[in-house]
Amino acid sequence: MITWKGDYAYLLWELITKDFRIRYRNMSLGVFWSLLNPLVLMAVYTYIFTKIFVNPIPHFNVYVLSGLITFSFFTTSLVTVTTSLVDNAAIIKRVPIRREIIPIASVLASIIHLVIQFLLLTCFVLAAGLGMTLNWLWLPFVWLLEVVFLIGIGMATSALNVFIRDVRYVVESANVVMFWLVPIIYTFAQVPAEAKDLYQYNPVAALILATHNIVLEGRAPSMVLVSKLAVVSFATLLVGWGIFKRAEKRFYDFL
Amino acid sequence: MNIIAVQGVSKVFRQKKGRRLLRDHVRDIVSRNQPDGFHALRNVSFTVSQGESVALVGANGAGKSTMLALICGLATPDEGTVEVHGPLAALLELSSGFHPDLTGRENVMLNAAFLGLHKRQALEKFASIVEFSEIESFIDQPLRTYSAGMAMRLGFSVAVHCDPALIIIDEVLGVGDSAFQQKCMERIHELRRDGKSLLCVSHSIPLVRELCSRAIWLHEGSVVMDGAVDEVMGPYEEFMLNPHGLRGGLRGAALPKLGARASSTD
User: What is the ipTM of this complex?
Assistant: First the structure.
């Protein structure tokens, strides 16, 4: 076996920018599309939940947008990372790079969208008169934990998708279920008391709860919440890495 | 010094068709019908030393591309070992790593990263890569506007600028025009003079004769002959002209005879 002696940092950067360029090059409005989807959903949900099912959540548009952005960061990156190895089969069958770099680059590329969408949220936060606090510095930290979780789960799903091409459809269905397992259109307070503890172990729910704390209440997320997010994220990374390492020997045969 | 050492290598593809859906897995479990798999390579051994130029020849499906994949470290053998010393530039499907929506420039930088160049090296060599490919005026156009020949020019140009110790050529020069093919051949000869090894897979007998001093003939995953290019290419050409007449002979009595001759030339 030979080892690849290139520059992984440079390769990673090239892969991340490639993803971003490809996604926006064929769109006349470019990055704007990244903002349109959450804006439309925010408008629809805000209308329904302030005019039809009237609810007491203050600043509902900001509440729903912060949930939607965080949720769509998870779902879109999970779908792209799941197909990343199959999409890059030409590369895997040609260059002996470490295969992990493909799903990792895929997840990191979606951070760019998160940041763009978050700038939009910031505009709504300021318009609502909520203001920014020093606790916003927590945001990159909880995002980082979510990225660790996504890389872990993405390594497992992308590797499985090489052998069984239906995995991406399973992931898409799981995302639909996930929407109702996270506090986007309801609040954590409405979750049944006996389920509250378990609920926080879902890293996507934990990330949205933390974002609500930081953005709407201007306070730091609780240590319990952050530690749950960290524990589940790193455990997932470990398991995902293990699955990936076992599977990668047969990638060539199945791609 | 051996640059490649292949020792008793076998490779079995469990499925001839790699792509699988859930229903295929279910069918396997339900029918309990374990497929035997497809032997792409059976107990293949050879070595390539520093500065040697070797051709892998054989009919379609003989296992040449699988052998290259094992040497390049893209797949793992089921039995045996493959050792490679030093960096290699595989000219495998040159433009396959290119993305149609990226410009020539972006594709060059991305491919240089894949082939192991550092950022500084890639920037330094960029001008020379473009100059060699002779497509300066299209370099900022998306790759989907390129013809197959232009994409190949760019791919070849990036690959030969990566300073490899071993060059692997897999039937890639076909789409270039004759002027560029000539230029590629000169470049390959130049690299050979610098002491680089060459491993060449081709169906073009004149190309093999021009570039290589030794040939390894694979048939259905086994080595039939391994020797000086003139010695191997004669029987190989004869076989290719009449594959069905000889096939029975290859499987049967002729094989040990040819095998014995091969080991004596080593």
Answer: 0.77
